[in-house]
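Every protein is a chain of amino acids, and every chain bends into a shape of its own. The fold becomes a row of whole numbers, each drawn from a learned catalogue of backbone shapes. The protein below has been through that process, and both of its lines are reproduced in full.
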Amino acid sequence: MLDIRYIRNNPEEVQKNAEAKGYKNISISELLSVDEDRRVLGQQVDELRERRNVNSAKMKGGKPEQSLIDEGKQIKIELADREELLRETDEKFTDLLSQIPNIIQSDVPLGGEEDSVEIKKFGDQPTGAKDHVDFAVARDWIDFERGAKVAGAKFYYLKGDLALLENALTQFAMHKVIEKGFNYMTVPHAVNQRTMTGTGFAPRSSDQSDEYSIDGEDLSLIATAEIPLTGYHADEIIDEAKLPLLYAGYSPCYRREAGASGKHTRGLFRVHQFNKLEMYAYTLPEQSNEMHQKILAIEEEIWQAIGIPYHVINIAAGDLGAPAAKKYDIEYWSPVDEKYRELTSCSNCTDFQTRNLNIRVRRSDGSVEMVHSLNGTAVSLARALIAVIEHYQNDDGTLTVPEVLRPYMGGRERV
């Protein structure tokens, strides 16, 4: 969440920012009105508690006068009333504050998805490949029908060489990020509500919620390893000398994909479960922009090494989620669709997530402030497989294994 002090000092900027991000129902004036009520009630509660303490002190040491007893009863009634109002107002304030998205950086383009700006490009734009579903099903590499029988639509089985290829992609990317200084971790596949909301996965509207919640428990399945990696240092103060902290989290990702109608959904593009290797960084505030560029560069290294053509886009404000101050997407060139399709992303969330979860840094001078958090996809395996199938398929029905993946496929050049 944002610092309420920043909102008080910059209400018009915060309102315009929320609207630019597509949060049309946000009212900063309502938030500030509730904030003022909360502060007034807090003062009243403090004053009543002080009066109660003074009254209690006067009644010690003998039989108190009736006037003191009556005053004590009246204070108790008034205090209970004010405390309940303060509790209700605090809840409303927290709810309103949690709906405010992060402030975008100055070089983020305004507008919606179509207004994102291409900033670099790699590789050619071939055409004429066979759709990944048709190619994989013909080889008996993927089974959506049995996935649906067992779990429902958009679940699937990967089989044989395609499952091995997924593992090869994972191993290659894992070695790459470890080489770059990231500490590999497996993570919990379920998190509590504080961690989920603290990470900032707040949809623009209720029908866009992607989480699978577990009935009867304070747990939801994760949509990305970013979520438990954000919660890893909740309520901690990290020494400045230890930053940056770099983590690589591997996990399945579970998504209802609500609100995805109208987008490309065939085959592996939008599924309810897939595996992903995620990069995550905690940095000093002055380091986060540089770290953002580092994470993007690693993503590019991975896809250049595999040999997949792509471009990088600076995502427009209206297509950013609540936590991101800025996001880059890498989109691969699809020879099937003859357009670019989303492959990976990386975001600078500044202090938005860390403020929610109370993750701070102690500077060398003893001062304490919020750290910044960033995340980036090393490989999202379902879409990675699509890109490889589309670019490495052969007319005889075989698939050439990208050279950098062959050590993880027993040296095989084709499958």
Remarks:
- DSSP finds twelve helices and 16 strands in the chain.
- The chain has two domains: 4-98, 113-409.
- The chain has a mean pLDDT of 92.
